[in-house]
Amino acid sequence: MRFLALYCFGVLALGSAIAAGGPSKEDMTMSTNDPAGAAVAMGASMAPPPVVDPVAVDGIRIELAVTGLPLDAADTNGWLRAFDTASGEELWTAQAFTAPPRDPDEPMTTEDPARVDVVTMQADGAAVLIEDSLGRRFRVDPKTGASTPVN
Predict the structure, then answer these.
(1) Which of 26, 33, 87, 141 is deepest in the core (most CB within 10 A)?
(2) Which domains are assigned to the chain?
(3) Residues sharing a CB contact under 8 Å with residue 59, sequence separation 6 or more, in sequence order
């Protein structure tokens, strides 16, 4: 009997919420410290990473690697994958950069990047030049996947 009473109460409460038009937009948002004053939906996650098109250099197509990373990859930032453009065969998967180290004893702040994205990737002669969301630049050898920082 108690279950039936609780069930009926729940149905009535849900019906009332639906009849009232559901929660308002103000109920579903919270203010942020965004300088533009934008509001973020409750429970919203980070913005998706930028779309970065693959780059081809000397018959090798290089693209961002999002899935299929090594099982021991503790840092999922900055991974690239290369394919032979003629055969489609995967040549290598390599990490061009890692997230900056942070002191685990320090509390996380909103300034700490939760994710570092590749923002641009372009052919640069016989290499590929990438830039991450922190403004760091790296030159990647398309044959080996080795990367070096560019100042």
Answers:
(1) 141
(2) 55-69+76-101+112-150 (2.40.10.480)
(3) 84, 85, 86
In sequence order, what E strands does 6-59 have? 29-31, 39-41, 55-57
pTM of the shown model = 0.62
> pLDDT band at 14, cuts 50/70/90?
low
Q: What is the pLDDT of residues 51-62, one digit of tens each?
A: 889 999 999 999
* Whole-angstrom distance, CA of residue 108 vs CA of residue 3: 44
118 CB neighbour count, 10 Å cutoff = 21
Region 69-97: what's the mean pLDDT? 91
